[in-house]
Write a structure and sequence with these properties.
5 helices, alpha+beta, 25% helix, eight-stranded mixed β-sheet, 197 residues
Length: 197
């Protein structure tokens, strides 16, 4: 429509030099970057204690809606003006958690009384693991909870003999997720800038 603003989007990974050059030449700019990270199989992951008053409990089917709501709350206001937030409502998160691929015995869900404070949700497929979800609700952040849950999740995966463990995160998350993953031994394998014009 004449006079209305539009925004064009394109992707090129850090190894796609020609595509990157084309996008930059055409006036696109990178607005955020998805990082593909992998855990070095030789890295010893220390166990980090849970914060006081928080415990991990086995996941029951009736917990799924609370976990889905916790994930939804954790991702609010991750980007300025919410421009690049993925719109995963609690209902969408619930449907994703109920996918038969998931094994809730691997999930690390932190409880503070009757409230879910945060979660780490690994997903195993073909003998390899993806850390599908790492999130902590704002009221429980900056207490070491994500690091504790992540270390528990990594130990659970290794106890099952899984050596290849990967995850994806955004370089720009305000929670500094990249720093958390670096601290337990993950390294960036590849970057995927998201370009906008």
């Amino acid at each position: 429509h004449p006079g209305e603003k539009i925004e064009l989007a394109a992707n090129a990974s850090s190894t796609e030099n020609e595509a990157t050059a084309l996008l930059l030449h055409e006036g696109y700019r990178a607005v955020y970057t998805v990082l593909d990270m992998a855990l070095d199989a030789s890295t010893a992951v220390p166990v980090h204690p849970l914060p006081a008053g928080v415990e991990v409990r086995p996941v029951l089917p009736e917990h799924y809606p609370l976990i889905a709501a916790s994930i939804h709350e954790a991702y609010q206001r991750e980007y300025d003006d919410g421009r690049f937030n993925e719109d995963y409502s609690a209902d969408i998160n619930l449907a994703r958690l109920k996918d038969p691929q998931h094994d809730p015995t691997l999930w690390q869900v932190a409880w503070d009384g009757d409230q879910v404070a945060g979660q780490v949700v690994p997903l195993v497929e073909n003998g390899e693991a993806e850390i599908f979800e790492v999130s902590v609700r704002p009221a429980w952040r900056r207490r070491g909870l994500a690091r504790s849950l992540l270390s528990l999740g990594l130990h659970a995966l290794r106890a099952r003999g899984i050596c290849v463990i990967r995850l994806r995160t955004s370089k720009e998350f305000r929670t500094r997720a990249k720093d958390l993953y670096h601290s337990v031994g993950f390294r960036v394998v590849k970057e995927f800038p998201r370009y906008r014009k």
